[in-house]
Amino acid sequence: MLVMSLFKRSVDCGVEDDRLMHVISESVKTVMEEEPLRPLVLGGDHSISYPVVRAVSEKLGGPVDILHLDAHPDIYDCFEGNTYSHASSFARIMEGGYARRLLQVGLRSITKEGRDQGKRFGMEQYEMRTFSKDCEKLENLKLGEGVKGVYVSVDVDCLDPAFAPGVSHIEPGGLSFRDVLNILQNLQGDVVAADVVEFNPQRNTVDGMTAMVAAKLVRELTAKISK
Ligand SMILES: [Mn+2]
């Protein structure tokens, strides 16, 4: 397992972004050269998940299943004129065929386009408003069979801001830290790569607690990947 830290600049310029996505993908492929290194990538914003998942899938030779914890589905076809935006990464992943199943958990800021895109790509979207009913299902998750494994993408804003206020897009009504732990610890499947994104150091103002919470998530994923 190798931890990488990638930061994407917030720029909206097509050609430059193409190049940037390529650089990120190639970096991930390089760390995967020597098996059995499995990348755990730290953002940066959520735009990095597309080039990382693409690299993992291309390197392993087929799609993965993705467990995506987030307040937002990040499935816009294009956001603010940028098809590689942090809000579009999973649209690019599904279009590319890099994931078979995509389960999104923690959603509470979703538009009609988000739900339409979810249907279009056959995604499984679990919204917070039905979380108590979905809990049992989520605690018995088995993913990655018949594909190249499981990719876990954790946007820190999946957590309620009471637990992690140091993010760019605060959405009340989210998961507790214990909810996230339960989901990750009960997840059955071979986790081949993961990312933790959207921690915003500039907003890490409440006793540095969001950095600590993000670090604990990294530790959990490290244990998961190492099994
Ligand atoms: Mn988010």
The CATH architecture category equals 3-Layer(aba) Sandwich
Give the % helix.
25-40%
Please identify which CATH superfamily we are dealing with: Ureohydrolase domain
Report the strand count: 7
Distance between the amino and carboxyl termini: 11 Å
Task: Please report the first level of CATH classification, the CATH class.
Answer: Alpha Beta
Number of domains: 1
Protein structure class: alpha/beta
Report on the biggest sheet.
7 strands, parallel
**Global mean pLDDT:** 92
What hetero molecules are in the model?
manganese (II) ion
Order of helices and strands: EHEHEHEHEHEHEH
Tell me the Rg in angstroms: 16 Å
Enzyme class: hydrolase
Organism: Panicum virgatum
Pathway: Nitrogen metabolism; urea cycle; L-ornithine and urea from L-arginine: step 1/1
Protein name: Arginase 1, mitochondrial
Key words describing this protein structure:
227 residues, globular, alpha/beta, binds manganese (II) ion, Arginase, Chain A, 18% strand, 7 helices
Task: Give me a quick take on this structure.
By secondary structure, the chain is α/β, with parallel strands linked by helices. Helix content is 36%, strand content 18%.
Describe the structure.
- With 227 residues, this protein is of the alpha/beta class.
- It has one domain: 3-Layer(aba) Sandwich (Arginase, Chain A).
- It is 36% helix and 18% strand.
- It has seven helices and seven strands; from the N terminus they run E-H-E-H-E-H-E-H-E-H-E-H-E-H.
- It has helices at residues 14-31, 49-60, 89-95, 112-120, 131-138, 177-186, 209-226, and strands at 2-5, 39-42, 64-69, 99-107, 124-127, 150-155, 191-197.
- It has a seven-stranded parallel beta sheet with strand order 1-2-7-6-3-4-5, sandwiched between helices.
- Helix 6 links the parallel strand 6 and strand 7.
- The longest helix has 18 residues, at 14-31.
- The radius of gyration is 16 Å and the shape is globular.
- The relative contact order is 0.16.
- Residues 9-14 have low confidence and may be disordered.
- Manganese (II) ion (MN) binds at residues 70-72, 155, 157, 169, 198.
- It holds the Pfam family Arginase.
- Belongs to the arginase family. Agmatinase subfamily.
- One of its GO terms (molecular function) is metal ion binding.
- This is Arginase 1, mitochondrial.
- Catalyzes the hydrolysis of L-arginine to urea and L-ornithine. The latter can be utilized in the urea cycle or as a precursor for the synthesis of both polyamines and proline.
